[in-house]
Each structure stands twice: as C-alpha cells, then as structure tokens.
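Notes from hallway chat w/ T.B., transcribed later so I don't forget. T.B. wanted the structure written out for a chain they're using in a teaching module, and asked if we could keep both sequence and structure tokens in one place. Agreed to drop them here.
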Amino acid sequence: MIIREPNKATVNILGKDHSGPSGGHLACQGCGGALSLRMALKAIGNRCIFVIPACCMAVIDGPFPVSSLGVPLMHIAFGATAPTATGIKAGLTTQGDNETLVVAWAGDGATFDIGLGAVSAAADRNDDYLYVCYDNEAYMNTGIQQSGATPKAAWTTTTPNKKPKTSIKKDIISIMAAHRIPYIATASPSHPDDFLRKFQKAKEIKGFRFLHVFAPCPPGQRFEEKNTVKVARNAVESRVFPLLEIENGEKLTLTDIPDPIPIKEYLELQNRFAHFKNEDIEAFEKNIEKRWQELSEWNRKQT
C-alpha cells in the first residue's frame, strides 16, 4: 500500500534529481485512460483523494514519491479499491471533512472481475464516493489478457484467433443499476462536453456514484495512436458504447442518440477484430442492436 503526497519530494530517477511537479506521465502514446483522467480532474478539481488499484494507471501516474496527478492518491491491491475508498471517506467524515471527494479509479479488470464483489458491497451500502471504471476491455497492464469487459471473439493474448472468447461483454451498467444507487453514467473522451458535465454532476451527488468511461488502448486494441479519439467516437456513433445516465436505478436517459454508423467502421480501425468474417460482424452487430433496443425502450418509459 502506497500513499503519495504529490509534488512534495525529491526523487532520483535515472541518475537525475527531480523535485516539485512531475514533468509528465508514463502512459503509452494515445492512451485513452490518461486522456480521460486528465478530463476528469479538470471537471472535479483538486479537492479530492484518489484510490488506484493495480492497473495501467498505477504505472502511468509516475514512480514513488512523485505523482503526475497533482492530488493525494493511494495505490492499493487489485480487489481492494472499493473498501479502501470506503475507509478513506469514513476517516474524512470522522475528521469533519465533508468536502473532499474520494475517487476510486479502476480498470475493467478490477471492476468487472476481481473487485466486483467489493464494488457491489459498497453500492449496496450506498457508500458516499465516486467510483470510476476506465474500460479498455482487457487486462492491458499485465499483457492484454481477456477480462469480463472484452467483447466476444475479440483478440487478446489469452483469446487468440483460434480460441476466441465465447461470451459477450459483461453488462456492468445493468449490474450497477440493480443496486438502485443514486447515479450511474457512461462517458467517452470523444464527447468532452458530455464527459465534463457528468463528472461535475457526479461530484455534487451524495451516495455511491458509478461512472463507466470508455478508454481506448492503442497497443491492447491494436490501432494507431492517432486514432484514439476516433475509436472512442466510433464506439458511441455505432452504438457500441451508448452514452447514458441512470438515476436511482430507475430513470434512464440516453444523452446522445446518434444516427448509427456501420459497426464495421468501429471494428475496422482495430486489429483485434481483423480476423472477423462477415458472420462475426453480423453477430457482433446483432448483440449491439439488441442492447440498444433495450436501452431505447427503457428511455421511452421515462418520457
């Protein structure tokens, strides 16, 4: 367990002393997770404490004791993100601090899989903090292994083309909605106004809030670094990643209803889908259309 106070120490890195603000982060070029985190901090400000489990972001923010985030943060074990955030919030409350925002920032592996039970428990208690899942659809930091967020038949190192993943992506939004928590939203760095508004809204709500962020990964999803925002935008415009809000587990609002582009335009940018045949594309499209119709029907019931 590592607690970092940002920008308050001198550390020797590669034979040079570095002190004060970090000069940058350690993300891959075109990292959608780093872009999303920068936007999130822009929305919520620096009156916050981050909890980050084992994931890409635990490396990206820089070597101890310097952090590129510019806010206090705690590195924690893979499955302990949610209870650690709960404990930090309880400590702040005991001290009379009701203003500092606690943010759990975890990847899909720590959220969809390893930490799901703990996330569910925190949601069930309606613990008062913001949980953010930045989703790049695999365990990217440890070698691009499949996670519960990996799309059906997408390439990963543990689901090569000859042995594809057989299950569809886990529906984390419906799982969280079943807990009837105050606020759930999806966000994409390709839609910054929508992204910032949702983070600002979540900041002001009390209770457990869950934000699901689509964070394209160039090496893991196998696309050119320059296409990060385009991949994210195509995910929204093809309806692969719908932008929505759910309040109290009941009221669903689609915050963007695009005229859909062909699913193929989303798939063809990413070499993890390069082995798809026409029947694979059709099956992928069928699952996406089914989910969109379910969400649209839910949305219509609110109007």
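Follow-up for T.B.: The CA atoms of residues 86 and 127 lie 6 Å apart. Might be a good example for the class.
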